[in-house]
Amino acid sequence: MPEIPRTLIVVGGGVIGVEYTCMFATLGVRVILVEKRPRLLEFADAEMVEALSYHLRDSRVTLRLNEEVESVEESAGGAVVANLMSRKKISGDALLYAVGRSGNVDELNLAAAGIEADNRGRIPVDADFRTKQPNIFAVGDVIGFPSLASVSMEQGRIAAGRAFGIPLQSNPENYPYGIYTIPEISFIGRTEEQLTNDDVPYEVGVAYYREIARGQIRGDTTGRLKLIFHRESHKLLGVHIIGEGASELLHIGQAVMILGGKVDYFVDTVFNYPTLAECYKAAAFNGLNKLSRF
């Protein structure tokens, strides 16, 4: 781009759209984010997304949820106009279209190998990442969700092992997610919505960065860490974080969860002071103290 626009329309409230919205808003651009679904990042924890949405609005971002772009045109003055299905019109200096990704397969001549991609260029694979041709494997963005660099590397490792008959194991349910918005969002495990739908009895413990010494030093008033655990067994079921360094901080909870640990671990463990890792201890106390009321 030759210059930073004064106003920007972003179409798409997925990971890419929201990340770019945050970046441009931080640069002082007035951003209008259009998303056809009722909330952003619908696969993430609702509380974390609500906190991000509040932060976006506080950064003067306009959220147009439940809205869909019908057409885009350029005005006589060089501005971009987005015509919405609801008959509304939105004007900006530029428009970023970020509604999903398509596999870059046009030049691969897949038909010669007996492989077909869907209408978005994604190649179907089985649990071992084999295509319909058992000696050909596919991994990464070209097979679709979650399209994360870290997961793509793991998929490649597993596929290589399968190709050579090496019994490698990996559980997609334990893959962490890092969304580089401002502030960051990172999570692993189940959400409250998923556990509620599956009738799993759970409790939640939350710690806020602003209550932790390191958070106060950083001046981070948005950050929070949520632990979700089974009410009866205390087994850790999910870790959800929003705030500076969330994608790094998550790995502590990831290790405990994958090893089958309980939320009690965080109460019985001493963390360096002052660090954001202390949020785990504060969140664990918060959650376990709720159980003592019953």
What features would you describe in this structure?
The chain is built from 8 helices and 12 strands. It has 294 residues and is of the alpha/beta class. The protein folds into 3 domains: 7-97, 3-Layer(bba) Sandwich (FAD/NAD(P)-binding domain); 110-172, FAD/NAD(P)-binding domain, CATH 3.50.50.60; 184-289, Enolase-like, domain 1 (2-Layer Sandwich), CATH 3.30.390. The chain has a 5-stranded antiparallel beta sheet, sandwiched between helices. It has a 4-stranded parallel beta sheet with strand order 3-2-1-7, with helices on one face. β8 (177-179) and β9 (185-189) form a beta hairpin. The mean pLDDT is 95.
How would you summarize the topology of this molecule?
Elements: E1 7-11, H1 15-26, E2 30-35, H2 46-58, E3 62-65, E4 69-74, E5 80-84, E6 89-92, E7 94-97, H3 149-163, E8 177-179, E9 185-189, H4 192-197, E10 202-208, H5 213-218, E11 224-230, E12 236-242, H6 246-258, H7 264-267, H8 278-291
Parallel strand pairs: 1-2, 1-7, 2-3
Antiparallel strand pairs: 4-5, 5-6, 8-9, 9-12, 10-11, 11-12
Overall body shape: globular
Order of helices and strands: EHEHEEEEEHEEHEHEEHHH
* CATH architectural grouping of the largest domain: 2-Layer Sandwich
Number of domains: 3
CATH topology of the largest domain: Enolase-like, domain 1
Q: How do the strands line up in the largest sheet?
A: 8-9-12-11-10
